[in-house]
């Protein structure tokens, strides 16, 4: 659920509370006007010019009086481009109104001039009684659901509340007073509740049914354009299903269905056999009736097995799959179905796989590929269908597919291939689809017609649609068929390679299509324009808004009529719930070929590009749902005529697509489009043109996000040098390019160069733009992060505090930039070991990822894990499974598992991340290599030294960032650690000396990473029993660490603990004990008594005390340590188990000693 908030700065913000506790809020009830503020308007301040903004102002003022910080308005809190969100919102509406603290009814047709008049009921009662608000369908639940309903005039004056005006409202609506008073709706019959809405009106006919869902406690998918009758039928079915077995079949049973009885019998015989999940694939070329066969099977199973769950799933892409699984989860009441952060597909899979689940049949329609791509709604890449198939001996799955390879992969057991229909079945099918029965005298004509149509179901349906619409005889239609045969042959002669088997199906489809197109072209030009536009974009999920953009001067009724014509001729399939349509692939191909023959395809594609450009939003996150749906259409349109001369519209749309792909983390695809725009600008405008330089800058940023540092640096340097010369040193675009180059230096670990450039940019921005300009503040934040990377935490903290204070004052506390600054300051605190301060800040901004890392630093593994899971599920939902941010979240969750010694879970997750990174990002991408290094450390934690070594060596060899880069040095250090654990001390020492010397030179002798290197080298010396050398290094490191980091910093304490261990190994147990007591006391004070590091110090102290002969004291210490570890880490944690073994041994030794 999203809520509006009006901040201190006077800016309206929209907050998403998915997966979070929803605060108290007010909710508006009103009638929609002509100029409402909608979801997309909130991206800029232009919405304030709209008439509907008056309602928002009213809500702001009234909510403030009621001390409510948030409010909800249906016009702008729902992203109607997000199909799943719209359906879910309509099903959740009753609950949202019921849970609201206040409901404000804004009566635009009731006017009172003053607040005093508002108190006099006689001045407004007549207009109140006549208000159209009481005649609208949706306002019924808005009146009944909330506890507190207040009525306001159009001027915002309070007229009274529901309780005070209940008798008047009862007289107007005939709703019982007890219902208005909040009596449970279960006390009123379904017929009574439906009667309350009987005379109410809605703009869309289906809404007269949908507005009843909450009142009747029904959840069902929303399907606009299905008509009131169909919606009412589905509602009745849902009410009936509440008393019987749930099912979802989005299509009505085909009353015209004929034939395929043998295949139906075979399918029915194979369902629910052999005490395992039955997998069956129905294959065949397009148009042979696979889906209709599966639909008839579903209805027969539902009819014959009353206890069987039957669900229909569109498997054509991952978005359709997600929508279908969401509907199933709702229908079955699967726990977590309404949790935005949950993976709905896995929830359904696990639910149906349980032994307690009843018998079920799933139909996966259009499963042409195991790897499902995306149309762009909720996941930008792909997923494997197999991963979401439930397994149960009570279940059966049927797939329909045109791909025989996919059929063999999904259904190893059984594949049923559909051949052409028999002549007799084809004739019966045609007769069933015709509006009038065929007289005996025309039976022979019918035989000839179905033969001409090759007995193909799709062609028969189109022929029948035409005959019905034009009211002609079979003979007349066959005559037209013969006339179009030559044209159909021409269209079918240019089949793509590997598709020749489709020839027999394409000729009849093309013939029927040409007949229909000729008629539509003559009599319905708008419908023809729509069809030609649809042929120039992707054939699936074509938004009706895109078609409407092609006819801005036509009325809504003319547009609807045009779509209705295409539907009547069976040329499209409507997707009512998404307000979009599909075209069968054979029809889509044929129309394109027809346009190409007439040399019109280029012209039509250009028109499509112009329409898309008008509709396509910018790449901001708030527009994500819209551009993800339009992106496949834009990419498809742009793919035609790539070798032709680029025009401005094509270039602009290409740029928009490139930026949206970039925002989605699809860098490879984005790179290609940015490069295309860059070359176009170079050719048309020259290398020094600002647009050329901006595209080059974007390409360099794309390289940077892929970890291709050298290419990024080379291109960015070129941009900076050119833009300095062309625009001047202090032009904002010059400064932006310089800042981007500094970011590249920082990614390369070249802190000094990055720092110098950031300072140069910052000083210029202060001078040119001012201290409080957003770009100046961004540069200050970047410089602070650069200081942080160098361990210069005081300087970083001062800058971040300055940025936060300025942003709070200018933007408000809740602006994303302010929250980002607060989070950055929290990271600086965390790096200094100031975890409590870091935690407080991160709780304030609720940055789940970094708060989880802070918990991890505090040893709060379970809390860290919970937050990492939450972060991962959120990024999966919002950005997609394969977005870099999602992969990063999975990577961090794996680290949380590793910290708890849950190696198998960690390994499984990281292997998944590595494989996905290799496929989506490239094998040498930094995230891929970091994940591989993490996998190596998991092998390390399990003592699988050989595998760890091989992987770490591969990571080192693959990294192309140079020998001085922090990542290279980290890999060398990890490899040295593996060598040390294998007893290969000489090899470990060589690597660690090299790492330490490089870090001293690059980062300085006092950098915390340099100190870590000294500590690691000391560990290697100790492994060789070179105690003195180890001691010298550790003493040196401790002194520096105390000076730079402070005596209480975790790194300082860890170094002191290591020195104590060195003393112990030299027999200097007294000095060791003194140091360990110091470390333990400090850690108890700073970290808390149950932090893993505190318990580690306690265990080391116990061992030291034992070595000094104080067995009972050592046993007490180790027992206390063991109990605390069980409490905080759990009994299965490896460290806890090691402590358990030591404790058992010590207790045995102490008992033996006592006996003596």
Automatic annotation (TrEMBL):
Residues 263-434 form the NB-ARC domain. NCBIfam families: FxSxx_TPR. SUPFAM superfamilies: P-loop containing nucleoside triphosphate hydrolases, TPR-like. InterPro entries: HET, NB-ARC, NLR-like, P-loop_NTPase, TPR-like_helical_dom_sf, TPR_rpt. PANTHER family: AAA+ ATPASE DOMAIN-CONTAINING PROTEIN-RELATED, ATP/GTP-BINDING PROTEIN-RELATED. This is AAA+ ATPase domain-containing protein. GO terms for molecular function: ADP binding. Residues 25-113 form the Heterokaryon incompatibility domain.
């Amino acid at each position: 659920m999203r809520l509006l908030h009006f901040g201190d700065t006077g800016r309206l913000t929209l907050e998403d509370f998915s997966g979070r506790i929803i605060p108290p809020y007010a909710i508006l009830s009103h009638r929609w006007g002509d100029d409402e503020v909608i979801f997309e308007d909130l991206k800029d301040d232009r919405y304030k010019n709209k008439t509907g903004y008056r309602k928002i102002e009213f809500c702001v003022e009234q909510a403030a009086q009621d001390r409510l910080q948030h409010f909800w308005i249906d016009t702008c809190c729902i992203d109607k481009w997000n199909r799943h969100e719209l359906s879910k919102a309509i099903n959740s509406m009753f609950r949202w109104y019921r849970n609201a603290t206040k409901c404000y009814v804004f009566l635009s047709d009731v006017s009172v001039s003053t607040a005093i008049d508002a108190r006099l009921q006689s001045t407004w009662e007549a207009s109140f009684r006549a208000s159209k608000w009481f005649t609208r369908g949706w306002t019924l639940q808005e009146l009944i659901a909330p506890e507190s309903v207040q009525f306001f005039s159009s001027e915002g004056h309070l007229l009274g509340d529901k309780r005070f005006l209940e008798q008047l409202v009862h007289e107007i609506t005939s709703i019982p007073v007890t219902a208005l008073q909040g009596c449970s709706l279960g006390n009123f019959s379904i017929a009574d509740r439906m009667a309350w809405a009987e005379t109410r009106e809605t703009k869309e006919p289906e809404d007269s049914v949908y507005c009843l869902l909450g009142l009747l406690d029904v959840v069902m998918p929303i399907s606009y354009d299905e008509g009131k009758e169909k919606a009412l039928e589905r509602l009745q079915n849902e009410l009936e299903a509440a008393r019987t077995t749930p099912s979802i079949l989005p299509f009505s049973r085909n009353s015209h269905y004929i034939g395929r009885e043998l295949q139906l019998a075979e399918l029915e015989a194979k369902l629910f056999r052999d005490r395992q999940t039955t997998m069956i694939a129905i294959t065949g070329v397009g148009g042979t009736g696979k889906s209709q066969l599966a639909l008839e099977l579903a209805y027969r199973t539902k009819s014959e097995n009353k206890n069987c769950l039957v669900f229909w799933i569109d498997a054509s892409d991952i978005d359709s799959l997600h929508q279908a699984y969401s509907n199933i989860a709702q229908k079955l009441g699967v726990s977590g179905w309404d949790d935005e952060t949950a993976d709905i597909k896995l929830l359904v899979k696990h639910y149906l796989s349980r032994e307690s689940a009843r018998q079920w049949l799933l139909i996966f329609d259009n499963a042409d590929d195991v790897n499902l791509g995306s149309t762009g709604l909720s996941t930008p890449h792909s997923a494997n269908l197999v991963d979401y198939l439930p397994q149960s001996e009570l279940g059966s799955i049927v797939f329909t597919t045109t791909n025989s390879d996919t059929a063999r992969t999904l259904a190893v057991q059984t594949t049923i291939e559909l051949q052409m229909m028999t002549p007799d079945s084809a004739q019966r099918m045609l007769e069933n689809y015709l509006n009038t029965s065929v007289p005996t005298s025309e039976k022979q004509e019918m035989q000839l017609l179905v033969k001409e149509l090759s007995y193909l179901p799709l062609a028969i349906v189109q022929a029948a649609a035409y005959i019905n619409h034009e009211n002609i005889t079979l003979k007349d239609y066959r005559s037209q068929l013969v006339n179009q045969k030559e044209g159909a042959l021409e269209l079918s002669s240019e089949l793509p390679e590997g598709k020749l088997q489709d020839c027999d199906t394409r000729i009849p489809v093309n013939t029927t299509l040409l007949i229909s197109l000729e008629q539509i072209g003559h009599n319905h030009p708008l419908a023809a324009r729509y069809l030609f536009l649809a042929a120039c974009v992707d054939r699936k999920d074509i938004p009706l808004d895109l078609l409407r953009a092609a006819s801005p001067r036509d009325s809504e009724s003319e547009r609807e009529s045009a779509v209705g014509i295409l539907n009547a001729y069976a040329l499209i399939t409507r997707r009512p719930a998404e307000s979009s349509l599909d075209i069968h692939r054979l029809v889509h191909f044929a129309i394109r070929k027809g346009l190409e023959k007439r040399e019109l395809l280029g012209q039509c594609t250009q028109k499509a590009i112009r329409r898309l450009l008008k509709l396509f939003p910018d790449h901001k996150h708030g527009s994500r749902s819209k551009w993800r749906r339009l992106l496949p259409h834009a990419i498809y349109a742009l793919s035609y005529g790539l070798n032709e001369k680029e025009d401005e519209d094509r270039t602009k749309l290409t740029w928009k697509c490139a930026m949206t792909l970039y925002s989605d983390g699809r860098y490879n695809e984005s790179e290609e489009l940015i490069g295309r725009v860059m070359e176009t600008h170079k050719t048309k405008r020259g290398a020094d043109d600002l647009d050329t330089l901006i595209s080059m800058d974007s390409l360099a940023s794309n390289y940077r996000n892929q970890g291709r540092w050298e290419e990024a640096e080379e291109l960015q340097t070129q941009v900076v040098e050119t833009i300095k010369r062309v625009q001047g040193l202090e032009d904002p675009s010059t400064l932006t390019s310089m800042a981007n180059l500094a970011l590249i230096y920082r990614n390369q670990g070249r802190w000094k160069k990055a720092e110098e450039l950031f300072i140069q940019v910052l000083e210029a921005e202060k001078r040119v733009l001012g201290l409080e300009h957003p770009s100046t503040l961004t540069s200050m934040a970047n410089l602070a992060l650069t200081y942080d990377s160098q361990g210069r935490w005081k300087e970083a903290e001062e800058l971040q505090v300055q940025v936060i204070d300025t942003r709070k004052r200018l933007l408000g506390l809740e602006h994303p930039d302010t929250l980002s600054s607060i989070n950055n300051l929290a990271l600086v605190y965390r790096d200094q070991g100031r975890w409590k301060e870091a935690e407080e800040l991160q709780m304030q901004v609720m940055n789940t990822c970094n708060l989880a890392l802070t918990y991890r630093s505090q040893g709060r593994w379970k809390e860290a894990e919970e937050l990492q899971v939450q972060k991962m599920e959120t990024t999966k939902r919002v950005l997609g499974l394969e977005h870099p941010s999602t992969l990063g979240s999975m990577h961090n969750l794996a680290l949380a598992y590793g910290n708890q010694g849950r190696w198998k879970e960690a390994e499984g997750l990281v292997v998944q991340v590595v494989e996905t990174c290799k496929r989506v990002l490239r094998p040498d991408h930094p995230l891929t290599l970091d994940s591989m290094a993490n996998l190596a450390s998991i092998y390390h934690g399990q003592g699988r030294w050989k595998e760890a070594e091989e992987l770490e060596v591969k990571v080192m060899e693959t990294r192309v960032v140079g020998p001085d880069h922090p990542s290279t040095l980290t890999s060398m250090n990890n490899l040295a650690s593996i060598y040390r654990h294998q007893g290969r001390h000489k090899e470990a020492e060589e690597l660690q000396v090299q790492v330490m010397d490089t870090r001293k030179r690059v980062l300085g002798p006092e950098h915390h990473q340099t100190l870590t290197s000294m500590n690691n080298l000391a560990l290697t010396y100790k492994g060789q029993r070179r105690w003195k050398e180890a001691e010298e290094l550790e003493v040196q490191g401790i002194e520096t660490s105390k000076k730079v980091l402070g005596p209480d910093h975790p790194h300082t304490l860890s170094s002191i603990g290591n020195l104590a261990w060195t003393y112990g190994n030299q027999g200097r147990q007294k000095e060791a004990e003194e140091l360990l007591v110091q470390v333990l006391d400090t850690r108890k004070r700073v970290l808390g008594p149950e932090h893993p590091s505190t318990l580690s110090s306690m265990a080391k102290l116990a061992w030291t005390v034992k070595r000094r002969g104080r067995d009972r004291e050592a046993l007490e210490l180790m027992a206390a340590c063991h109990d605390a570890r069980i409490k905080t880490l759990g009994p299965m944690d490896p460290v806890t188990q090691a402590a358990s073994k030591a404790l058992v041994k010590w207790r045995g030794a102490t008992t033996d000693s006592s006996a003596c």
